[in-house]
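#onboarding

Welcome to the new folks! Below is a worked example of what a typical request in this channel looks like: someone posts a single protein sequence, and someone else replies with the predicted structure as tokens. Don't worry about understanding the tokens yet, we'll cover that in week two.

Example request:
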Amino acid sequence: MLEKTLFEKIRDREIPADIVHEDDHSLAFRDISPQAPVHILVVPKKVIPRIAAASGDDAEVLGKLLITAATVARQQGIAESGFRLVINNGRDGGETVPHLHIHLLGGRPLDWPPG
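Example response:
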């Protein structure tokens, strides 16, 4: 049996997290190393290692993940002023946990280009 990812352990309540949203398909919680005043990770409960590993079978989960990110942005009061969604993929893309997740960033002006 493969070792659980950090996000699976959070999903299964083996590791504490500041959870701000949960539904049947996803979990959203505050990042422990925030890069903006609002920095929330939106994670599918289904394990998909990274966006490049997603398939057509994951389309519904991916769509719901984006809707959840928008819902959480509204709940956090940053939908009107603006926010950024980031998905890292692979080592060069900044991926550190092999479990697809969306970074929801907001609460301040965000520079472009990032990184």
